[in-house]
Fold these 4 entries.
Entry 1:
Amino acid sequence: MELTYSLGSSDYLTQLLYEASINKGLKRNRLKSWIIVTLVFVCLSFLFYQSNNQFLFKFFSCFTILTLFVYPFYQKNHYKRHYLKFINGHYKNRFGIQTKVVFNGTEIEMYSQVGESKMNYETLEKITEISSHFFLRITTGNTLIIHKNINVDPEKLRTEFQHIAKKTNINYTIDTQWKWKNIPY
């Protein structure tokens, strides 16, 4: 099978957000920061309540409630902006480059204006399918991103990738309901 496509910043962003959403440590840190920020405002509200300062008590109580409900949305957008800044700083030279990827039975061959590379199927760690992309995770930590909106039938791609996963005995994960969530649990 042969594919020709190019990637943009949104493709890299989707991949990084997906990886962040399944990373248990990062999910735990997001939840912990939400709880800590909320508890800080609760403590400040309580301190001003004890000192009979009604104005600051009400002020920090409002911030507590606001933080409890709005912080997850802020955090979601913060991570998105952070990853987009990272992508635009590190991957900007990769945007729009036409890449030809060939799956030839035992290895993946990639050709672009940058150069050529080959990797054996055995170097694949896992294959993940979401609603818009396929991610082929390599044991070195890199990921081959393949957008479903290329001129190849996604069902044909799915069949090929399931065959590769079965052949190399790696996980093939279908997560078509995935989306970047506000609340990290």
Entry 2:
Amino acid sequence: MDKYVPPVLYKQKLVDRETYDINDFFKMIIEVLAAAAVIILILSYIFCPIRIQQTSMLPNYYNNQYVFYFNTRNVKSGDVVILYNDAKLSNNIIKRIIAVEGQTVKIANGEDGYAHVYVDGVLQDESYIKEKMLPVSNTYEITLKENEIFVLGDNRNVSKDSRAYGPFEYKDVKGKVVWKTPFYYNEKGFIKIVFN
């Protein structure tokens, strides 16, 4: 047998339950907004997405491919980085660090007739580049000053990099590329899957 609940008390129970449900709803909204704010903060300042709009890093990074970079200037030779310098560039660029402060970079023709990169006199193993560098008319050599880095594109024969702009500085580094999407959009807007 159900326990008798006076009408006034029953009404009070309904009001309490409605208040509880409304409070839960607003609490959930606040939690969702807070989570969204954290995600936006992470994607804006810590782990940032950017779309590549150049072919100078083929065959490892494609035009219209998205990459994520970690917002740091703690980078080293071999790292792929996003750079910006308003005196040299109109847009962000993506390049590979070849040498850092204190090191000497030399680009000279080898016995095979192609240009090669030397750092502190050591021939660099660059199996990642798209194709061999075309020969240079003059040997290029530079010793990097404090805080300077030397960057090149993997697609050496079309890349505009430190050979044209000169060295960059650590302060020009927006971040280190840590992940790339396994696809890009071709000129017709179709998705192309990549496996490298």
Entry 3:
Amino acid sequence: MSLIDDLNDGFAEFGRMAREGGRRIADGVNQFAEETKLNSQIRDQERSQAKAFEQLGRIYYEKLREGTPDEAEQPAVDEIRRSIDEVNALKEKLAALKAQEAQQAEAGSEAASGRDTDAAEPEAGETAETDSETTGN
């Protein structure tokens, strides 16, 4: 009977170790989930802070723009104004580029549909060649 008792004791020990290992894994998973949740909440609060700082900065800038900034504020106001002007200039360039692209696409569409008759007709004094004339057949 000693062999059976030893086996029972071994299985009991194995079961205890498996339960303990499972509990440790579950504790680790729960801790990881809690850490992830807290990190997410921290990031949410930091994003909220950044939005509030941006909003406050815009309000403050508008007040400075309308008034006279002091010597310490002037460089930041000048940089913001310069950046706004640069963004506006870039937007104008982009709009012009898109307009030019649209005109080229429209011209290509007209040529493809046969409405562009200048490109299809030969110049005065020229003759239209057929495939047999260009290949010698």
Entry 4:
Amino acid sequence: MLRVLIPAAGLGTRTNLNYPKAIHKYKKIPIIVRILKKTYKYDNKPIIVLNKKNQNQISRVINNYGFEFQKTIQNKPSGMLDAILTINKIKNIKLSNVILIWGDLCNPQRVTINKLLSLHKKYSNDLTIASIMTNHAYTEIIRKKNNSIKKILENRNKIKFNKGERDVGIFILNKKYLNYLFKNKKKFISNNEFSFLKSVEFALKYGLKTNAYQVATHKDTISFNKMDDLK
């Protein structure tokens, strides 16, 4: 069973908003609603990760737009991986693959998701990553000489970003990869948080089949971390 998972539990402190950044409007539509519109055909009751503080505000906006969803709660801001693994709280959950989309993506493209799903299935990957070449690599995919992935660097604290290949926050992962994350969570600590991207390097060494494909568009790269991002 294919499920959609949207982590939207971040506090959004860098935006200086007095409401969750997931309900900030991009082109007159709340960001979380824009994501739901693009993913609803894959899962008509997607899983959204919220925190105790923002759950009522975000739930109200989603309901006002007529969408259904399953809710899990991240008790404290401990990183994206910790948010992902809250799906373990859902009783009797059935899934084979998960479309994972960061909850601050303003304009994810359905064509990108379709291409990624096709490649995930074609190559029987455990984790498939949508990427793009950019002059400002917020994250940076490092490849070996044979073009396979070595690791993904998180550059968010850099003053100046490198030119290179980055992920855009859209992934497909299977149950095998999720189980690996559950069992090895403590290995993936970065900057005092549980890092999903840090798991990639370890998973490759473990033998999980992981690859990134440059199928993303510029529209997929628009994410909301601070107000300047939307100018």
